[in-house]
Amino acid sequence: MTTTPSSMASMSPLPVSCLINAHNCLMGSRCYLGDTSISANFEWVCEGQGHVLVCVPAMQNDDPPTATGHDTSVDDNNVDSPGIPPTPLTPPTFLSAIVHIDQEDFWLTPDGRYQGPNGIWKEFLDVKPSCTLVNPGMEPVMSDFPVTLHMLQLFTQHCVTPSFSSGKSFFSSDEHGPSHFKLCHRLFKVGLHTVSIQKHYSWWLVLVQRIESDLDGKLTSQTSTSAAATDPFSFELWPLTKERTHAELLALKASHHILPLPMYDLAGNLIQPSAYCCSLQGAIMEVHFTLLHWGIASAKWDVYGGVIQLIHILVPPAPTLVTTRKRKLALHIKDDDSPSRKTMKV
Question: Region Disordered: which residues (predicted)?
Answer without folding.
Answer: 63-86
